[in-house]
């Protein structure tokens, strides 16, 4: 049975909110596929690590912590509500075991309201990743010279780790960031799109639904709170999805 590899990145300020995301994922996973969660972090406290281990162990899943060197991202621009951790996903295939051929990256500020196995089973053999088309991506197409006229959101990335390694995508993305600082508006997402704009599979919007997009959707499988206004510091649409799990989480 295929092992599901989940990758996420976090700091101490976001630890509880990532725990809510993982709690929602674990609560809704129906399959018997083994699950391993890989957490990319630079300074996560031992207390927060212990809490996360306790949460995951209740569902017979595994969790491991991968220490990041922030010096690797010294050329990466940080501003707004984005932290350095967003850039960690660029390096995912270089950080996880060589035997792992596929990985699912998830941002911390989301709720998984469906069985993640259904997304995991998407066939990505012929592409580098699967993602949803960003509702605001058309603003970046011209600046980044994206000829396919589509731009993906990097909050949910189902990654073909094997192809990524074979074509040194991490190095290509980091080089783009170093050489094109004036073109980077939306952080690493811009660089990922610049390199992979014609090499990805488009997922249904429900797998990375952004409430502020105002796109009508009856049943989002993943709710992604992309704006600076989060359900724990404001009242974004679909805040109730976050509260449903946050209020039940023993943290």
Question: Overview of this structure, please?
Answer:
The chain is of the alpha/beta class. It contains eight helices and nine strands. The chain has one domain (4-246): Spore Coat Polysaccharide Biosynthesis Protein SpsA, Chain A (Alpha-Beta Complex), CATH 3.90.550.10. The protein is 28% helix and 16% strand. The strands form two sheets. The chain has a seven-stranded mixed β-sheet. A two-stranded antiparallel ribbon has the order 5-9. The chain is globular, with a radius of gyration of 17 Å. The model has no long low-confidence stretch (mean pLDDT 89).
Low-confidence stretches: none
Mean pLDDT: 89
Order of helices and strands: EHEHEHEEHEEHHHEEH
* CATH superfamily heading: Spore Coat Polysaccharide Biosynthesis Protein SpsA, Chain A
The CATH architecture term is: Alpha-Beta Complex
* Strand numbers in spatial order across the main sheet: 3-2-1-4-7-6-8
What is the CATH class? Alpha Beta
The CATH topology: Spore Coat Polysaccharide Biosynthesis Protein SpsA, Chain A
Fraction of helical residues: 25-40%
Q: Give the biggest sheet.
A: 7 strands, mixed
- Distinct helical segment count: 8
Estimate nothing, just give the exact number of structural domains. Answer: 1
| Broad structural category | alpha/beta
Shape: globular
Q: What is the total tally of β strands?
A: 9
Strand content: 15-25%
List the helices and strands and how they pair.
Blueprint lengths: L3 E6 L5 H14 L6 E7 L4 H12 L4 E6 L24 H4 L6 E5 L3 E3 L3 H5 L8 E3 L24 E5 H6 L2 H11 L7 H10 L3 E3 L19 E3 L14 H8 L5
Parallel strand pairs: 1-2, 1-4, 2-3, 6-8
Antiparallel strand pairs: 4-7, 5-9, 6-7
Helix pairs in contact: 1-2, 6-7
